[in-house]
Every structure is written in structure tokens, then in C-alpha cells.
Amino acid sequence: MQRGPEAIQRWEDRTYWPLIIASLLWLIAYSWKSITDAQGETAIVLWAVIGVTYIAFVFDYLVRLVLAKPRGAWFRGHLLDLAIVAIPMLRALRLLRAFISFGTHRQSAGTALRSRIAVYGAGASLLVIYLCALAVLDAERHAPNANIVDFGDAIWWAFVTVATVGYGDYYPVTALGRIWAVALMAGGIAIVGTVTATVSSYVIEKAARGRDDDEPATRGQMRAVAQQITQLAVDLGRPAPDEGTDT
User: Fold this and answer.
1) How many Cβ atoms from other residues are within 10 Å of residue 190's Cβ?
2) Span 14-32, average pLDDT
3) What does the longest C-alpha to C-alpha distance in the chain come to?
């Protein structure tokens, strides 16, 4: 069996859309189960969909780990993939990949990177809020003295929590619900930081546009100019400038 980056790339190309579809199916099944508090045969079907998609993600991770060479370096460089397998909520993040490639191939490197960050930031924000609302609803719905008992309460609580408003009208009473609340608070801090960094980068680029003459030349740029001068001299049949001179 061939191993290495090329083998992994071929595998990822073949499984890209199947895993995107699996992520969507998982999101639909988990949402349906949590929002409707599904019971009986419906719950069995939804749990089956959730289980099959879980197996698909585990299988994908194990195949790529087997194909990796060296495995230790690949493992250390793909901890997020391991987290996606271990934490079901993160599987929905794969859906964001379907939106990244659209509209960025003609942009500059900086603009494309900022566009990706913006898409990931906005998409991750909504997913974190939505999925934490579902998770807290699952944990709280049947708990004694719970005040988050339907999806409307849960989504309101999630938005209030991530915005750090903290009205206190809804709050988790179970240990698991509070763990998800802490995760949502941490996610809110990360979301605010991502948005701030993206806006700052955009403002700086706008302010610097049209002022290239004020930017200092790098040593690499100076070497490139020297090489072009040397090549031009050779083309004209004249002695080349001394290339050993450090500009």
C-alpha cells in the first residue's frame, strides 16, 4: 500500500464530499433528536444516523493515520482531526470547508486569507451558538428545577451567554449543562478575538493601499532586482555587475 502525502491527498479528494454529506446528516439528525426530544422508532433511526456518521469519521481518520509517513509528525499536525472524531460537535465544522473555496481563488493572498477567516469566524460563531444550545437543551430538559426546557429557551440562553450579556433569566442547573456553558463562554471569547483581528487586518490594508512607496524594501526584493539587472546585462552582452555586493 502506497503511503505518504500523495496517498493521503488522493484519499481526501475521494472522501471530501462524502464526509461533507455525513457532517450534514449528523447535524440534521442531532438537531431533530434534540429539538423534538424524539422517542421510540424515530429516536432509533436518528441514533443510527448519528452512529453511522461517527463510524465514517473514525474510519477516515484511521485510514489517513495509516497512510501517513511519518505517522508521529502527521498525528501531531492533525490534532484538530482527532478532536473532530472525539467531540461530535466539531464534525459540523467540516461544513464550513464547502464555502471556503468559493470566491477566493481570484483574490490576493492576504484578501483570500482574510475571507477564509471571516467565513470560518462567522460560520463557527453560528455553529457554536446553535450546537451549544442543543447540547444544553439535551442536558437540562428533564432535570429537576430546570428552566431551559425547549429550543427557544436554549437558543436565547446561548445568544445571551456568548454576547456576555448575562441576563440570568435562563441558566443551566446540571453539571453537564454548566460544562457546555463554560465551553460556550470560551468560544465567545475566541469568536470576538477572530472578528477583531479580521476587522483590524482589513482596516490596516485599506490604510496602506496606495502607499507602497512608503514601505521599505526587503533584502529579498533587493536581491531580485539585482538578479534582473544581471540578466539584463547578460542579454545586452555587457559585463554583469558584481553579484557579491551585499545590497
Assistant:
1) 13
2) 92
3) 90
C-alpha span between 124 and 3 (Å, rounded): 33
CB-based burial, 158-187: b 16+ in 10 Å, e otherwise = bebbbeeeeeeebbbebeebeebbebbeeb
C-alpha cell at 190: 475566541
Q: Number of C-alpha atoms within 13 angstroms, CB side, residue 238?
A: 8
Q: pLDDT tens digits for 105-136?
A: 455 555 666 667 777 777 778 888 999 999 99
Question: DSSP states of the chain as a string?
Answer: ---SHHHHHHHHHHHHHHHHHHHHHHHHHHHHHHHHT--HHHHHHHHHHHHHHHHHHHHHHHHHHHH-SSHHHHHHHTHHHHHHHH-GGGGGGHHHHHHHSTTTTTS-HHHHHHHHHHHHHHHHHHHHHHHHHHHHHHHHTTSTT-S--SHHHHHHHHHHHHTT----SS---SHHHHHHHHHHHHHHHHHHHHHHHHHHHHHHHHHHTT-GGGSPPPHHHHHHHHHHHHHHHHHTT-PPP-TT---
